[in-house]
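thread: overnight batch results

M.L. [08:02]
morning all. the overnight job finished for the chain we discussed friday. pasting input first so we're all looking at the same thing
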Amino acid sequence: MPYLSAQSFLGRDEAEGGFYTDILDALAAHGADPVRQMEELHNRLMFTILVSNNDDHLKNHGFLHRTGGLWVLAPAFDINPQPERHRMLATGISEEFGRTASIEAAIEAGPYFDLTEDRACANLRRMLDVIAQQWSVRCRAAGMSSREIAAYRPAFDHEETRKAERLVAMKMAVTTQASGPLVAPNDQVDGKRAASSGNMRTVKD
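M.L. [08:03]
and the structure it wrote out:
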């Protein structure tokens, strides 16, 4: 199956670099199922930040050719978590948000990827859960010692992790608050049953 790196696809040289939004432009123009592909690219951006991947340059993003002359993102590869990495992305988010490895900036950039904040935060929540549950398990399965695993913890548990957790918690709190109580406290039901979503209580005068 024909493959092209994002660097070749975009016609960039190695020193020039680029942004995730450049890859978005290529997907919009030449991608099969671009909406799904854009969401996948945003997930990869968030994952890169959360696992401290320092190798996300354009040569490590790629496209596979499909019938009809269209392209899709190649499976992610060459992901290199670094516990002492500097907080900069090899491929920046966009010209607006720059190259800082910021989960807040990644969420704010969601509209570039045709994602609402709710959708981006839902994806982030699932990603946080999987990383927290799996990173040390996968390291152990790869034969790493307890000391080596402990040394790599900062790659998976760091300041941006805390920020991501706060963002998700805030979004969940806002969503819960917006849904409101099952029965508004000022409702007057005159001794009738007030029913909402299968929960019932009697409201008296």
